[in-house]
Inverse folding.
């Protein structure tokens, strides 16, 4: 029975991924929640309460839980936890940027290193997927979209670098690591920063649709692609793709993204 760990699994893409994986009775799904009172467990989905990835002890708390369940191997780790606050040249935010870095890059990096340093929990059968965004690609930034949102873009870029470095550290062990842009989604996160006005024009999909594409892509991902950056749903929702990469209708799906 494969063990799937979804970090940040109570809403948005994380919740959809947990539900998608639990639909296969052969999977054992572990789903983290910040709340001390997460949704009820089901036959093959177990919630791990009190895991806030932006805190220093998230990894230790997660390991403690895993040990109590006598889990010896995790087959797939997907880290979806994120935070997004808008900024502009006139209105940057030290506090918001700090929270984005803690949530989007520091926490995920430390959590994966914690798992990797615990015996054989991550091994040659393991895949680690960092949910990033095309917004973390320096190459894809273009004057047509302008600047701003410094913490959002830069924290995703930093996550991409951490994932690349972890892929080098863990390649000899056979642990496959990827960074993905799951697609532009119709979530409370994007609505909360006013991006719902771009949903239709930008081709935003529901988290369930994005999760289905991501689960399918993960099933084909292996060590031969470790350390790479992918858009499983292709270029359709990447606003600068035409300007930077060429006509979208000539680009493949899935699409490997430039750093």
């Amino acid at each position: 029975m494969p063990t799937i760990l979804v970090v940040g699994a109570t809403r948005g893409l994380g919740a959809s991924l947990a539900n998608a994986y639990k639909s296969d009775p052969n999977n054992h799904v572990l789903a983290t929640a910040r709340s001390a009172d997460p949704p009820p467990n089901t036959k093959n989905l177990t919630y791990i309460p009190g895991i806030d990835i932006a805190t220093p002890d998230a990894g230790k708390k997660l390991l403690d839980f895993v040990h109590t369940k006598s889990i010896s191997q995790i087959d797939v780790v997907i880290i979806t936890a994120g935070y997004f606050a808008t900024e502009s040249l006139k209105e940057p935010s030290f506090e918001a940027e700090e929270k984005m870095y803690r949530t989007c890059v520091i926490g995920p990096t430390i959590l994966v290193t914690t798992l990797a340093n615990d015996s054989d929990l991550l091994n040659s059968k393991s895949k680690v997927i960092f949910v990033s965004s095309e917004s973390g690609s320096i190459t894809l930034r273009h004057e047509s979209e302008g600047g701003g949102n410094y913490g959002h873009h830069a924290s995703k870029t930093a996550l991409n670098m951490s994932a690349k470095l972890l892929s080098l550290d863990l390649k000899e062990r056979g642990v496959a690591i990827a960074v993905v842009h799951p697609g532009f989604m119709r979530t409370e996160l994007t609505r909360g920063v006013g991006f719902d006005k771009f949903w239709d024009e930008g081709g935003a999909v529901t988290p369930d649709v994005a999760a289905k594409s991501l689960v399918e892509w993960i099933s084909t991902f292996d060590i031969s692609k470790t350390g790479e950056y992918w858009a499983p749903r292709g270029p359709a929702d990447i606003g600068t793709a035409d300007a930077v990469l060429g006509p979208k209708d000539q680009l493949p799906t899935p699409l490997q993204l430039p750093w």
In short: Residues 27 and 133 are 27 Å apart (CA to CA). The longest strand covers residues 3-7. The chain has a mean pLDDT of 95. The first helix runs from residue 12 to 22.
